[in-house]
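User: Um, any thoughts?
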Amino acid sequence: FALVAVCGGVAIAWREAELNRTQLGNLAEGIERLCRIFQKLPPQGLGFVLIAVLSVLAVDRWKTRSEILSFPDAAVDFLISANIPGPTLNLFGDGGYLMYRFSDREGKVDRLVSIDGRTNVNPPTVMRAHNQAVVGSLKWSEYFALVNPKSVLWRNEGPLTAILMESPEWCLAYQDGTPERGYSVFVEHKSVNSLKVKGCPS
């Protein structure tokens, strides 16, 4: 959008300064050179370049959209199969999916989650504390104090993941994907002995 606005501004200035190009100085010379280059391009070549650029932008946009819509399937499979205790501290956007996965056929949830996507049921104090944890602020532990979690499911790319990896109170029990995209499961160190989680020292 900003690029379109800048181009529009340049076009207006170009039209207004058409009689006296010296007002634009070196910019006028640059624009004239750019116009000559574009006039030399065959229409088919310019069309191909435009289609290629739009294709790259569309694929990038689709990837971003699919990342937003991804769910922590494998991480939740691990939580369930390893019988990792709750409540599970999680991100706002993942809570609804966790409730779905942690419920039986009748819809009864058998494991607590800290927050879910319903803005009308989350207390403001929990939402504020959640947001502090998301950005990895100095007050990140307030979210933990409110929820008192036994496990944490968090995105790999979040600052909180790096904080918990350095914390003596938490053990990285599971991680999938890449550092830029995926999920991590952390378990309290004091629960490790009873759970016998691989990768967590006793």
Q: What stands out?
A: The mean pLDDT is 80. The first helix runs from residue 2 to 16. The longest strand covers residues 170-175. The chain is about 50% helix and 10% strand.
